From TrEMBL:
Annotated ranges, domain Fatty acid desaturase: 141-346
Organism whose genome encodes this protein: Diabrotica balteata
Keyword match Lipid metabolism: yes
A molecular function (GO) term: stearoyl-CoA 9-desaturase activity
Transmembrane feature ranges: 111-135, 141-161, 258-279
Protein name per its UniProtKB record: Fatty acid desaturase domain-containing protein
This protein's domain notes: The histidine box domains are involved in binding the catalytic metal ions.
């Protein structure tokens, strides 16, 4: 069952949920980022300009409708979201940084030298091991490492990203457990941190509140943001994000609480132990392939979405945002490189309109839907895609890319229906 959003009015406005009255608030008319702003640059909360419309779908969580808000860049500065400051460790009170200088370079925030050391060391060792690895003598190990990389990739793309962050589909318990285990194999941040950072990234993309703001440079958006203290705006906006779906899930809470052990065993110990125990592979080469080369390639595949897909590619769906379509990233990141589409329709479980052969994550989700473990997969209607593409695209869409508008009227879905 796929939920689709239809019936766009080009004169309609982006929707914002009212968590108190369970209705939807319609923001004032906007044209090409000309939202009503207050003196601080945030969307004005002037009540006389807001009208209420009937709710067409039950709103159980603010994230249920955040997808509609993400159609227009940075129109999500809504302050009525529950403050989760108590849930964020080591991030209060807000820090104040002067420009941080090191030798001849100047940085927005202080450098975390411990992170710089270990990230650099891991990459240098991985390059050395990759160059000295007897590739053709270790074909079974190479195939095994590729499979482990695919498992970890699905944990990030199908789990942390499309399920836990965007709620683009619903998962039954067996699939949820699989997603958590696969994400553990990836060995990234805790699921809580991952979801919070990515929701902030979508709501405040390419601003100081974006954890990996591409405007601060390619290297920063790729890995540099993990080597530096967070910008105070990232922390402040992060406290605005509703994460009750994460903190309120006992299974996820357990996973976050014992994340160190999940990461240690599922990312390093268990995967690297299987080849020596199963077919007598050497421990050295198994550790090289799994704990270093595979791990570093998996990390960089995820990071490439934040860097390469924000710098290189066309923008058939929304030419007014930075994310772009990048087929190379889609290959390595299992379908996550259709980034212009994803930032335009973040609630789509496919994260792409086309390119199924490069979208391995979608193929797996379709499989889990057939066996009943995934259900209510969400996707925009063809009419919605067409209207937004013709209004905002750069003209490169193969079907609807001939007309590029001079002005843009904010589109909005005004009806929700379900298709069998």
């Amino acid at each position: 069952m796929i939920t689709t959003l239809t019936q766009i009015s080009e004169e309609s406005q982006p929707l914002v949920p009212d968590p108190v009255s369970k209705t939807v608030l319609m923001l004032p008319k906007c044209n090409d980022n000309e939202l009503p702003l207050d003196t601080n640059g945030n969307i004005s909360k002037s009540e006389p300009t807001v009208e209420k419309i009937e709710e067409t779908k039950e709103i159980s969580d603010i994230s249920d409708i955040s997808d509609v808000e993400d159609n227009v860049e940075n129109n999500n500065n809504v302050e009525n979201i529950k403050d989760n400051a108590e849930s964020i460790k080591n991030e209060k009170p807000l820090p104040h940084y002067e420009k941080y200088k090191f030798l001849f370079w100047e940085f927005e925030t202080p450098v975390i030298w411990v992170s710089v050391f270990f990230i650099t060391l891991w990459h240098v060792l991985s390059v050395y091991m990759c160059c000295t690895f007897p590739l053709f003598d270790k074909i079974p190990l190479v195939i095994y490492a590729t499979i482990i990389g695919g498992i970890s990739g699905f944990g990030v793309t199908g789990g942390a990203h499309r399920y836990f962050t965007h709620k683009s589909y619903k998962a039954r318990l067996p699939l949820k457990i699989i997603l958590l285990i696969c994400y553990s194999v990836a060995g990234q941040n805790t699921l809580y941190d991952w979801v919070r950072d990515h929701r902030v990234h979508h709501k405040f993309s390419e601003t100081d509140a974006d954890p990996h703001n591409a405007k601060r440079g390619f290297f920063f958006s790729h890995v540099g943001w993990l080597m530096m203290r967070k910008h105070p705006e990232v922390i402040r906006k992060g406290r605005m994000i509703n994460l009750t779906d994460i903190t309120g899930d006992p299974l996820v809470a357990f996973h976050v609480k014992y994340w160190f052990w999940f990461k240690l065993f599922f990312c390093f110990v268990i995967p690297s132990s299987i080849p020596p125990l199963l077919w007598g592979e050497s421990w050295y080469h198994s550790i090289c392939a799994i704990c270093f080369v595979r791990y570093v390639i998996s990390l960089n595949s995820t990071w490439a979405v934040n860097s390469f897909a924000h710098f290189f590619g066309n923008k058939p769906y929304d030419n007014y945002i930075r994310p772009a379509e990048n087929l190379t990233v889609s290959f390595f990141a299992m379908g996550e490189g259709y980034h212009n589409y994803h930032h335009t329709f973040p609630w789509d479980y496919r994260a792409a309109e086309v390119g199924q052969m490069l979208n391995v994550t979608t193929l797996w989700l379709n499989f889990f839907e057939k066996i009943g473990w995934a259900y209510e997969l969400r996707a925009p209607s063809s009419d919605l895609i067409q209207r937004i593409t013709r209004n905002r695209g750069d003209g490169s869409h193969e079907k609807w890319g001939h007309e590029v508008p001079d002005t843009y009227s904010c589109p909005v879905a005004t009806e929700v229906r379900k298709e069998q």
